[in-house]
Fold this sequence. Notes:
Order of helices and strands: EHEHEHEHEHEEEEHEHHEE
Structural class: alpha/beta
Largest sheet: 5 strands, parallel
Low-confidence stretches: none
Strand content: 15-25%
CATH topology of the largest domain: Rossmann fold
Number of helices: 8
Helix content: 25-40%
CATH superfamily of the largest domain: Response regulator
Strand order of the largest sheet: 2-1-3-4-5
Mean pLDDT: 86
CATH class of the largest domain: Alpha Beta
Amino acid sequence: MVETRRRILVVEDDESISLGLASALEHAGFEVRTCESGEEALAALPGWPADVVILDIMLPGIDGIAVLKRLKARDPDLPVILLTAKGSESDRVAGLDAGADDYVPKPFSVLELVARVRARLRALPETRPLPDRFAFGDVEVDLRRRVLVRGGREERLTTHEAGVLGYLIARRGRDVTREELLENVWGYAPTMQTRTVDNQILKLRKKIERRPADPRHIITVHGVGYRFEA
C-alpha cells in the first residue's frame, strides 16, 4: 500500500517563520499548508483535514487561544501544538487549559518542532472517531440511519454503501486499498479478486458527487484503491 503523506497545518502570521517551518516539514516528508490568521485556518480545515495543527498564539484578528478552543470544539482529538512567546508562562497555561497538546516557546529549534510533530502523530489512533452525522461539500450523511442529503434531496444508503463511506470517512486523507474494504465491510478474504468494491464506489459517487466522472470526495488512487477527501 502506498503511504499517504500526513498533513500539517501551520497557522503563523510571521512570513519568515511560516516559510521556514513549511520548508522543514516538507523536507521531513509532510504535506504542509500555511495560514496567516485564525479565520483562514478555521475556513481551510473542513476542506483540508490536517493531522496536526501548529498554531501561533499571537495572531491578527482571532487570537490563537480562541482558535484553539474552536478547533477542539470541532474535533477534540485533533493534535494542536502552540507556538508561544519565550518565557510567557501565562500563555502556556492558557493554552494547555484550552486543550493544547503541546507547546513550543519562541525562538525554537525547527528540528525539535518536527520531532514533536512526529511524536503527536505516533500517538494518533489508526482511525478518527466517526460521528453518526458527517457533512462535506453540499452533502450531509447520517451513517447510523443510512440517509444521505444533497442539495435538499434525501437518499437512502444500502448497508454496504454506508459501510464503505463510513470506512473511508474514518480514514479521510489516507489511501485505502480495495482489499481493506473487502475484508472490513464485506468480511471477504482480502485475497479475493472482485469488482464489488469498484461497483459500490460508482454507486456512491452518483449519490454524493456533483460530477461522478470527476469526483472531488472519493478519489481513485491508481494501483492502490481509494481516498476520501472532505
